Amino acid sequence: MSTGTGPAARWARYVALGDSMTEGLWDLDPAAPDVPRGWADLLAQRLAERRAGPLEYANLAVRGRLLGEIVTEQLPAALELGPDLVSLVGGGNDLLRPGADPDALAARLEAAVVRVRGTGADVLLATGMDARDSPVIRATRPRVAVFNAHVWTIARRHGAHVLDVWGMRSLRDWRMWAQDRIHLSTEGHERVAQGALVALGLGAETPGWDDPLEPLPPVARAERLREDLTWARTYAGPWVGRRLRRRSSGDARRPKRPQLEVVRLPGG
Q: What is the dihedral of CA 15, 17, 20, 24, to 10 degrees?
């Protein structure tokens, strides 16, 4: 019997595809501190709680992956697992690169969605984040917006669900982001998992799940400058260096959960 609240989840096999956001970078699993958790793991837990039977779950996402790599490497492996729900979230790393073509990315994404939908499985897509408040990533905002428009169109054409990350008000707060200002914090991943439930038509567990946080007191300009310099030295510099060398933090990594496993419920 389902132990969750809200409508029951109909899916029995969920496979998550993507990059660092879906791998869960910066959100550590309390039960396994050396393994990232993230919104997709949290979503799988919520789905399992809302099912009468077991939920099997695999997560093939790897940090740093481009959309083309997700489609050519992860998607075939996912389809071999016979899922009835696939979350396909990618393109963010592509859009960070100068000269990225959101139209070409969207065409590749749509072909992948058609392939999954052809098996009868449902698809969960996601929009890119609105980087309006980021002094560094803000330059990508126009092409992310174009890509997002494609995501909504692809979903309409093929009956996919959309996790509207761009529209989440809570993510406009830096407390929802990790120290590197690129990846979500634990609380950010929790909010996105709630958004995924809404996107799948299951409703959020927590009323006001996307309400903005109470504002913090203003930070002195000198302190803000020190924080920015520390961030640039610790995170931005190494990130740019890897891009110039065409390297990724995930080059040698394998998926954390490559095979379907039954999601264990608390106390189960």
A: -10
